[in-house]
Design a protein that fits this description.
heterodimer; B: 327 residues; mainly alpha; 84% helix; flat
């Protein structure tokens, strides 16, 4: 119980005492991430194996999933054509199923399986990706000049103002620029720590409560709430937040 | 037992911690249940023949909204009954552990409990207006309340980590870390809990009045609540940094003040932004349900407003980091 929150990390190359650079490899995370990816590939492949005009159950599920996320992306981004919206569809849809299955990995009541999302490195990587992608989309749509002028604050470019107001506006960017940059960076922290805190928190609560009641009855219901309900909601929240970051950046 | 022995002091801190946990943690849930009951009474006044539906909705809302106080109860019992793993000479840190866990769970369950009352009240109003949609409104309410409880779940996690990773000795800096991380997550969860409850309330009102925008209301509610909860995530970050990532800590009074002050900065700093962005979320979710065609515009405006309202939480986090690492 005093090892709460610790994860399986390999610090040395196997068989030697040479340290692995950057502090080691999170073996549990890597293995369960690979398991998630392989499971997803197999599931998707099985679902679209026999495509038919009158679809079977698996195909209906896949079509539902694709059409729901297609509508979600189109409704959030509101670009001119459907093709432009669909550019973002693979990213958003894949992110959701990956996070969903990762969160569900907490279901088996053993310590052998670790949720990839209960490791801050996974979520921090995905959050950095989402934020940088939104910034890149903003630069691409608006142009680098407009994008950086927005970072410099609302008073950077005042057309038709007096020279004094112009200088005051330029000086105000000394105040606004660091704040805006930190605000952008804090997006990474908030999006990645949200899913990490919820999933890891659920895992810790489950461990402690199971220990206190000797694994009987109560953990089953709590497993349903923390793993399936919270896991699904947090996966969806991460996905929609990524989408809205992009939508805010390109408008 | 001697009058001034370590055991006495540990007992005193247990009483103090459990008192803080239950005393503070009960306030919010009770307020929230009262809010739901108020709207249920108004609804029964409006539609007396539907009192069965209304009573059921009210009770479900109160039961789900009452779980933060149950978290507080569980942690309170743990604080009272948990056997310390290192009894001898560990008094100072153990005392800080119990008081810190009490602060974390007490303050942390306050906000979520009160916040969960708002969607409960909105659901009662919606059922009174449109009794046929009772199951849809109830499910939306439960999702909103469950989301509004994640700040209190963060508080539970920090309290459990504090209680089960006991640190021996009497170290001023460690005491500061324990108290500071408890306060950071506790006070930091207060505003976000209230705010995400408010956002859920707006969405439930929207899905009650404009049934066609049910899915849209739930989606915008999740986004608004997620943004409301940013301050508590900063609190979580500072608590983790305090507990796991601090190095070269000296056993001195300045370090005690430093670690405690970082927790206080990010804790108090999160109250306002969490509540403020909840107000924005309330109006935003209701507006999206009313006018689904303009969802993109409303959502963007809401998000920008919430982001601006959250800048003070970001300043608080920067101040906490500066206290810890720069000065």
């Amino acid at each position: 119980m005093d090892r709460i929150g610790e994860r399986w990390i390999i610090h040395y190359w196997p068989g030697t005492d040479i340290p692995i650079p950057l502090g080691g490899i999170n073996a549990g995370t890597v293995i369960s991430t690979v398991v998630v990816i392989v499971t997803l590939l197999i599931l998707m492949r099985l679902a679209v194996r026999r495509l038919a005009m009158v679809p079977g159950r698996a195909q209906v599920m896949m079509e539902l999933y694709v059409s729901v996320f297609d509508d979600l992306v189109a409704g959030s981004l509101e670009l001119e054509t459907r093709e432009k919206n669909r550019r973002f569809f693979p990213l958003i849809a894949a992110l959701f199923v990956f996070l969903l299955l990762s969160n569900f990995m907490g279901f088996p009541p053993t310590n052998l399986v670790e949720e990839p999302t209960a490791d801050i490195n996974t979520t921090l990587a995905l959050g950095t990706m989402a934020t940088l992608l939104a910034a890149a989309c903003g630069v691409k749509v608006k142009g680098a000049k407009v994008y950086f002028e927005e970072l410099l604050g609302p008073m950077w470019s005042q057309e038709g103002a007096g020279i004094g107001a112009q200088i005051a506006g330029k000086l105000s960017s000394l105040f606004f620029f660091p704040l805006n940059v930190v605000g952008e960076l804090s997006k990474i922290v908030s999006i990645s720590f949200r899913i990490f805190g919820n999933i890891m928190g659920g895992a810790i609560i489950l461990t402690v409560v199971s220990h206190l009641v000797y694994q009987m009855v109560l953990p089953i219901g709590m497993n349903f709430f923390f793993v399936f309900f919270q896991g699904a909601i947090q996966a969806f929240v991460f996905t929609t937040l990524t989408l809205t970051y992009i939508a805010v950046a390109i408008k | 037992m001697e009058e001034n022995s370590w055991e006495t002091w540990i007992l005193i801190s247990r009483y103090l911690g459990a008192g803080l946990a239950l005393g503070l943690g009960g306030i919010g849930a009770a307020i929230g249940m009262g809010i739901s009951a108020g709207d249920a009474v108004l609804g029964i006044n409006r539609q007396p023949e539907r009192q069965g539906y209304l009573l059921r909705t009210m009770l479900i809302g109160q039961a789900v909204g009452g779980s933060p106080s149950i978290f507080a109860l569980v942690i309170g019992f743990l604080i009272l009954l948990l056997r310390p793993s290192m009894p001898e000479q560990a008094a100072g840190n153990l005392m800080a552990t119990f008081v810190g866990a009490g602060l974390a769970i007490g303050l942390g369950c306050f906000g979520s409990g009160a916040g969960c009352g708002v969607p409960g009240a909105a659901a009662c109003a919606g059922v009174a207006r449109n009794p046929r949609r009772v199951s849809k409104i109830t499910s939306g309410m439960i999702i909103g309340q469950a989301m509004a409880q994640s700040p209190s779940i963060f508080a539970v996690v920090i309290a459990l980590i504090l209680l089960f990773r006991q640190v021996g000795g009497t170290d001023l800096a460690v005491m500061g870390v324990l108290l500071g991380s408890g306060f950071a997550i506790g006070a930091g969860a207060l505003g976000p809990g209230l705010g995400s409850g408010l956002a859920a309330g707006g969405a439930v009102i929207g899905m009650g009045r404009w049934p066609r925008s049910h899915g849209l209301a739930i989606r915008s509610m999740l986004i608004a609540q997620a943004v409301c909860q940013t301050p508590v995530i900063f609190g979580l970050l500072i608590a983790f940094i305090l507990m796991f990532a601090l190095q070269d800590v000296g056993n001195t009074l300045p370090w005690f003040a430093k670690t405690l002050a970082a927790g206080i900065a990010v804790g108090f700093g999160g109250i306002g932004p969490g509540y403020g962005s909840g107000v924005a979320g309330y109006s935003g979710c209701e507006a999206i349900a009313r006018n689904p065609r303009k969802q993109g515009l409303i959502l963007r405006t809401m998000q920008i407003g919430q982001a601006v309202s959250q800048s003070t939480a970001i300043y608080a986090m920067i101040v906490a980091l500066v206290i810890l690492y720069v000065v």
